[in-house]
Amino acid sequence: MKTELRSAPVRPGAASGTRPRPRVPSRFVPVLATFALFLATFGAGSLRYEGFASGQVVANLFIDNTFLIVLAVGMTFVILTGGIDLSVGSVVALSTMVTASGLQAGWPVPVVILAVLALGSVFGLLMGLVIHYFDIQPFIVTLAGMFLARGLCFVIDVESISIKNETFRDLATGIIELPGGVSITYGVVVALLVVAVAVYVLHQTRFGRTVYAVGGSESSAMLMGLSTARVKVGVYAISGFCSALGGLLFALYMLSGYGLHAVGMELQAIAAVVVGGTLLTGGAGYVLGSVIGVLMLGTIQTIISFEGTLSSWWTMIVVGVLLLVFIVMQRAILRRQARH
Amino acid sequence: MTETLSAAPPAATAEPIVDMRGISIEFPGVKALQDVDFRLFPGEVHALMGENGAGKSTLIKALTGVYSVDSGVTRLAGRPVTFSGPAAAQDAGISTVYQEVNLCTNLTVAENILLGREPRRFGAIDARAMRVRAAELLDRIGLDIDPVSVLGSHPIAVQQLVAIARAVAVDSHVLVLDEPTSSLDSDEVAELFRTMRVLRDNGVAILFVTHFIDQVYEISDRMTVLRNGRLVGEYATAELSRIGLVSAMIGRELGELEEVERLATHDTAERSAPPVLRAKGLGRSGAIEPFDLEINPGEVVGLAGLLGSGRTELARLLFGADRADSGRVEVGGNPLHLRGPRTAIAAGIAFCSEDRKGEGLIPDLSVRDNLVLAMQAARGWTRPIPRRVKNELVESYLETLDIRPRDPDALIRNLSGGNQQKVLLARWLVTKPKLLILDEPTRGIDVGAKAQIQKLVAELAAEGLAIVFISAELEEVVRISDRIVVLRDRRKVAELAGPDVGVDEVMDLIASGEPERERAAS
Amino acid sequence: MTTTARDALIRAGRSRLTWPVLALVALLLVNVIVTPSFFDIRLQDGHLYGSLIDILKNGAPTLLIALGMTLVIATRGIDLSVGAVVAIAGAVACTSIAGAADSGGAAAAFTGIGLALLLCAVLGFWNGFLVSVLGIQPIIATLVLMITGRGIAMLITDGQIVTVNNPYYAGVGAGFVVLPVAILISVGMFALVGLVTRRTALGMLIESVGINPKASRLAGVRSRTIVWTVYVFCALCAAVGGLMISSNVSAADANNAGLWIELDAILAVVIGGTALSGGRYSLTGTLVGALLIQTLTTTVYTTGIAPEITLVFKALVVIVVCLIQAPKARALLRRRRTPVAPPNAAAPPEPAVAVETTPTRKVGQR
């Protein structure tokens, strides 16, 4: 495709107004595809099962996946820069462990929450520093982080610790009534808040735009004088923070801390992000896409539970196949772009 | 030739905005720049010319603060300056646009122009203000595109112009364009030139590097020619003929190598055998226009042309390293469908890339493994070369090619450039090819090794091997080749044969070519 | 090869393995201190028993999988799906044997094993296809099977833990021919691969593809076929490892069999000195790495620490090894200033004469 170039300079600011509106820009295609797929899946579910298309089923999609939404948001930051964070599932487990043992030890709830969030952020920050300053592949560093966090869980306790703190339980069971007889938990509000903040940061701040720039071309971003180091380290700190917050939400959901919580959740988060249209090579994607990706995974799970005869492992298979389809699609798009 | 200095500033009263005096830069073992003077005036387009290794890039990097100089002074608008890096140079008003567009194709045009200095409101990026500001800047260079469109959706030319818009967004007085046209077609070049003229008329000083001589004459007001790290001269474009320019770039000083007598034999006696290779209408869009070529046994065919003239591209097509999109190839009289290097190798074609490190060496493997790689690859992994045979083979080539150290177990990364090159040559010679394509085999290696390789080429040809020889040094090509194919602006423009072909004739063709026909073709 | 050259090689090999070997020795010493009888090996009914034998036996699957992983990593790849393949192999074999008419017979055992190997070869073929033909990054390409694989295994076993009672099958993981069969298989495969890659040209071609894919292609190396084959081989190694794990307990647990074994395998390769960036590989190194990991696990057991905490130690080992390997970290240790990166993509090849010399000194001083 070739853009027409006019020789005569145009009035300032008129450029955007005078041209015909382009069709859907290609960068939105993957997200829209996911959204369409989500609607189709959900629609198919509604046609097939009675009571599927209720407001509460939609609300439950959020309620059952608050932690995954938050994780996917953090993961989106990391993947947008072209990195990956394998430690998130383990950090979730560690956070539930710290929460449960902290509460057991009688710490006040706000202190526990702050401690967990700080722990997660510092954990992510350290990984980011190692990745950037020692130039070691994110894959291997976060793999070490994954081992470490998982192992630290068991250092705290090998067994599961249930959470009996009243305040925490109230937070967990608290419900917000929405019109239409639909109710959601506080966790949903937190998750949506995180999404909103992430959208703001990614699109309205210099940090966020630099995240995209680094993912597009790190060397270019550096030559453009952007603070790539801050961004490359920062995204891991953000992911660590999101993992810790996800861990808190998971603790609310499970009301226990356990070293074997959230095994493989990093894979779910990565899958959600990729299915949500974010390029694994970085530079393109949207937080909202990742949210849709999570909802997509949730819908599949809901359908499988509605189906009854289908077993839960179908979820993994379907998710894997979806992942494959999106990866191959991305590859095809990249190849076509390269041919331009 | 024209060695006279005829410096003619655009206006007698003007002060140069950039004035570099006596710049010298030395890398370990290499004098990259020696005592070079360079002046750039406001409101001019100044072409910096020179062949590979002339020092163009080094001079630009010295100007833009990437390298620090060993001696010499740079004055910017009269004040001596030293930059700690590209960012500092940019702050002082020197912006650089590189050959590869160093922007983020996944972001919008506006973002690419303003990233890092976006207008903000309450801490957040003010998208509207950004759009307006970007549109203003695009307007300033006369580019009418939607600022919120994604950069990657535009052709490279437009991306190049956006890079210029970014460069002028910081109120640059000096704009350095390092080979911005190498991947553009003629319409796109015209667009770029239009923008350059707009900027020049606004008083911006533009330093322009290109390989295309026509472009230099079309756009530049003055030029500076470098050769081997030294200043050849500063000229007004109107006063320097094309042949004068080419001879200034290539130079005529031959040093000790010229003492070697002409190596080519030019015996056209036994040409009864079919050509080793015959290419008909072979071409690849954007790389080289369709050409015909015949290569006979025992013949050295030299490819002459400036950097970017298509000489490497032609060689890669013959080897199947890149796919041709038109034409056909016959080897030994039989048609050959070149699907890739393996087909070429099987047909007896060998190719030494100019990029020794990137496309030749396997740095972490030993000399022995590097030497037998192509032969082993052809045999397949199941049929290893017997150890004894391998050792004899390697030893004999280490001996004949005088490769040092004579240790087959040394890692090839630890060898000098010349010895690495000899190992790569040996890699192909052991496969007993019929046609050997050498792309700049003597670049970046010491004089002794260079002479050895030249001699070897002549000997191999005498034994009946057909050779395609590419070199940036015209003397070398002329001395070695039986026949010379001249390339210019990605086209084969002539074929010269016979013992009387001289450097002047080739230079003339490189300089002038057939400009009329070229216009018609594009 | 001259003797001096051979000495040089041996020395080089030694220096690369010095630290892992020392760590291994240290761990063994710790064990002897805690359990004085640690080195005891006794012969009973023609079978060898002892802690060292246990380490080898328990480490056999990891060792085997690390073997396949070494070759994959040597080609600049990685295979995350081996854990899933382990689960699938066990699931296929056990389901097939359990469903056979004569579920205790040799025929059933061999059919089951054959089916498992076949399916896993297909899975490896698939991974190789994604990587070598479609050109998808190895991490991502194999991630698909990593996620899907356990689901497939569950599908095969119908979510149950399938138990079998077949002496022939049990022989693979729990049998003895003086030494446990699992050890013999792993060590045998190791020797075989070492022999095949070093006696034929395969090893060199794999390394050349891993070190410089572009140059290899231009030299006529069949990079695609080599990369493809390596993934198939890695999946086969994982399959055999999976059969060992499952036959050792005569059951297929689709959920837990081979959980995190991909990470252990990668770890073993990295500890053994094969860089994740591909190229030169060391099978001996991988062997040491795998033994080190298994000994570490055993040590944690014998010293009475909760076995789950092994993960912490593994993490520390990964971090230390990677830091030692990272060029940047080495450079920092040598207190070298890192230069401002020059605009790398900016210029055509540098002045010809300067090709060999990186102008670090010239770069603008900060």
Automatic annotation (TrEMBL), chain A:
GO MF annotations in UniProt: transmembrane transporter activity
Cellular compartments annotated: Cell membrane
Recorded GO CC terms: plasma membrane
InterPro entries recorded: ABC_transp_permease
Segments traversing the membrane: 28-47, 67-95, 107-133, 139-158, 178-202, 233-255, 267-300, 312-334
Membrane topology: Multi-pass membrane protein
Pfam families: BPD_transp_2
Coiled-coil ranges per UniProt: none
The protein's name in its UniProt record: Monosaccharide ABC transporter membrane protein (CUT2 family)
UniProtKB/TrEMBL annotation, chain B:
Membrane topology field: Peripheral membrane protein
Gene3D superfamilies named among the record's database cross-references: P-loop containing nucleotide triphosphate hydrolases
GO cellular component, one term: plasma membrane
Entry-linked PROSITE patterns: ABC_TRANSPORTER_1, ABC_TRANSPORTER_2
UniProt-recorded Gene Ontology molecular function terms: ATP binding; ATP hydrolysis activity
Keywords attached to this entry: ATP-binding, Cell membrane, Membrane, Nucleotide-binding, Repeat, Translocase, Transport
UniProt domain ABC transporter: residue ranges: 18-253, 263-514
Record's keyword annotation contains Membrane: yes
Cellular localisation: Cell membrane
Protein name: Monosaccharide ABC transporter ATP-binding protein (CUT2 family)
Organism of provenance: Prauserella shujinwangii
Source taxonomy: Bacteria, Bacillati, Actinomycetota, Actinomycetes, Pseudonocardiales
UniProtKB/TrEMBL annotation, chain C:
GO cellular component: plasma membrane
Keywords: Cell membrane, Membrane, Transmembrane, Transmembrane helix
GO molecular function: transmembrane transporter activity
Region annotation (Disordered) ranges: 340-366
Skewed-composition ranges (Pro residues): 340-351
Key word Transmembrane helix present: yes
UniProt xrefs under Pfam families: BPD_transp_2
PANTHER family in UniProt: ABC TRANSPORTER PERMEASE PROTEIN YPHD-RELATED-RELATED, GALACTOFURANOSE TRANSPORTER PERMEASE PROTEIN YTFT
Name used for this protein in its record: Monosaccharide ABC transporter membrane protein (CUT2 family)
Protein species of origin: Prauserella shujinwangii
